[in-house]
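hiii so my PI (J.) wants the whole complex modelled not just the main chain, which honestly fair. so below is everything: two entries, each one labled with what it is. i double checked the lines twice but i was tired so who knows lol
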Amino acid sequence: MIGNVVPAVRAAVFIVIALVLCGVIFEIAGFSAPLMFESILEGAFLRRGALEQALRWGLPMFITALGVVISFRAGYFNIGGQGQFYMGAIAAAFVAEWLKGSPAALVIPACFIAGMTGGALWALWPGILRIKSGADEVITTLMGNFIASLVLVYVTAGPLKDPSGSGQQASSRPLDAAYRISNSIGLSPTIIVIAILTGVLVWTLLNRTSFGVLAGLAGRNPTMVEWQGARVWRIGLASFLISGALAGLAGTIEFMGPNGRLAGGFLPGHGFTAILIALVANLSVVGTAAAALFFGGLASAALFLPILAGLPSAAIDIINAAISLFITAKSGFIDRLANLGKGQWTKS
Amino acid sequence: MDEILIATLRSGTPLVYAALAGVIAQRAGIWHLGLEGLMIAGACATIIGIVVTQSVLVALIIAVAVCMLGSVLLWLVVEKLKANQIIAGLGLTGLGLGGTTLAVQSIFGTQAAVSAPFGLPKIGPAFGPFASLSVLALLMPVAVIVVWIMLRRTRFGLRLTASGEHPFAARSAGVNPSMMRLAALLIGGVLCALAGAELAAGSLNIFAQNMTAGRGFMGFAAAIFGAGHPIGASCAALFFAVVGALGIRAQIVFGDRVPHDLLLALPYIATVFGIWLSARLRGGTKALTGFGELRDQ
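here's the output for the full assembly
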């Protein structure tokens, strides 16, 4: 437990620094910083139904963030969560269209399988390029995000286009109400159960199986793991696939639950926030759940701000960005401060 | 043919400037994923600057100042606070994307695109069909050569490269690698401001949200594809631009038979191809693994 104190204190301190930076930016941009933070706090955590909203936004991001945790622990920087999220949603949408008219008990599981496969396949090619050729996965997964969002625009304006939709933003035909797993408020027992189940499975995978232990070791020292006789490439590829599948699962949930249809460029910040959640949680599963709730609240405030407070929702993007700027920072001073209680001064 | 060449130069110029910034940062030992954010900040500052001050020169100075400020922020976080370069870079990019949206909203009260009455000066009719290109496009080869000479032939450039390749040796030779990185990021900031200015005020004279659309990341990829060499990186950047221009050309030629949005994806696919090819030819990029250590901080 003590081992978690230092990272937690450090994360808290740097989040405060990041918020101060945000305040400065808000003031420069001509908005009152105290008013902005007050509105965000209200929109995210204090208004009525805030917890539900935080869960609605946080649970899908929690699932994508778990994928980030797995790939980061294994030492691969899969930052293509956004693209894998889109691809999962697109695959689920195609299967839903294809199986239209079949009983829900068949369609819903088929969509979930398709969504996870779609996400996993979109993580597979950067994984192969990385492991077989050494192509930097940071760039390939980033480019994958841009390609996937163009594919999404193409799909919503082409094969799955809703002919009754307005010309403003292309969107797909809405999913049949019988197949929806939640209403448009977006929180339902199904989604909560899926999120809890995924969390438990990922926790078990990482903490109670040889894969999890080896992945954690491979992230720190691949050579050693290789010498121990484990095949690092398999662990790496598996971690890419699982992280993609989880992002695809989140995409499926967003498609079959709150959104009920695909729209070009929907939820653009999902993948980035998921990375942030994983990092704030210091790549722990339990921490990811807590952080997802926090960032879920912020995401719901992004809708609250422009409508009820008349403030731009870009404020939330700025807060997320500033936190990511500082979240991996280290400071010898804070480490010493946090270690004071233990009666020792360690070198940072 | 001329049309493709003009389209390539027009879309390639911002990429080349961004790639040069990426090369300089990479030489100094920083993986600069903030290029995207600095570029959009430069684009936004240029257009707002032109609208507010009615002067291109003042607008450029504002853009350069904003990008240098962003660079200093990245340097503080990466060098002084030892943050992970990739995450911090992505954070700077997010700050640029969000910050420009916020700035446009607060100044113009809307999130719609902002257009400026005029843009960068054009190179003029002396260049025949290329008359509509901006002066920054004309200066682009000069910038490439200046950066090349700086890195290869000047004491400063060699010290900068040494700080990235072997900071310990640089330190024993009396160089402060941290300061060299600050210098590299500041020069990169100026180049990103030019990249953004060219993107926004080169031909369309418009600023729209997220208008960089990954061009900064492509510039970073070009720096890797071009092996951290200014000329190689510029060629890589122009290659991405050619692919994009051909895609637009194909759209005109084939019309609706080829999906428009998928042709737009061509430059991104070319970037993936470039990264793959450079990994095949030169082996993988410097180990970016070891991020499991994020947990061990």
